[in-house]
Amino acid sequence: MSVLSAIGVSRTYRRGPEVIHAVDDVTLHLEPGVLTIIQGPSGSGKTTLLNVLAGWEPPDSGHVEWRGVERHPSTLAWTDLTVVPQRVGLLSELTVAENVTLAARIRSEPLDTGGVYSRFGLDDLEEAFPGELSAGQQQRVAIIRALIDRPAAILVDEPTSSQDEDNARLVLSEIQSLVRSGATALVASHDPIALEFADRVIRMRDGRLDET
Asked: pTM above the 0.85 mark?
């Protein structure tokens, strides 16, 4: 059974008299143990599709399913579904460690982060604030935050946009490791390196999907 699905989802916008079909009647099933890469030109609808799957934008038609049941993604726990947007969304008043463990602290649960900062090249930065980090470091912190709870599904928008080649491979390898444990991942990326880690590649153009 699919973990997360979009069923006949459409999302339109108005730009003056023009109607933009950002997502046009898309059905997509994300299976456990599969890392899906979605590629396409800017404006093709990738981010909008991720936003609908995350529950951040409502579809005009169609719906989202969780394990075969229609459900609004906002009702899911962080251990079910996590999202890493292009704007990484770190809280500026919290340290790196506080950002990473935020969900666990909200749940009042302990969280073992042993070794994770070192793996991501963030040694000795746990007590730094986001404004003290480079864009690439901030992006890696956001990815750690998404992965640390070992969610069943993860949605990631351009995870290597601020990374050099070595760190791009590191980030994608960590997402792949989560997927190999039985999770599912949908990664929107322009980066050709991402294709090396893909189990499934989908192209998007003008709001529609074309699987290759």
From this structure: yes
**Beta pairing class for 35-39 and 200-205:** parallel
Helix H or strand E segment including 63: strand 61-66
Write the pLDDT tens digit of every residue in 110-150: 677 778 889 999 988 999 999 999 999 999 999 999 999 89
Cα gap 26→124, rounded to integer Å? 44
Range of the domain at 151: 33-44+74-211
Does residue 8 lie within any of the structural domains? no
Tell whether 87 is covered by a domain: yes
> Can you tell me the distance from the alpha carbon of 117 to that of 63, in angstroms, rounded to the nearest whole number?
37
Is 174 a member of any domain? yes
> Contact 154/182 with Cβ under 8 angstroms?
no
Predicted confidence at residue 212, as pLDDT, reads 54
Here the CATH number for the domain that contains residue 130 is 3.40.50.300
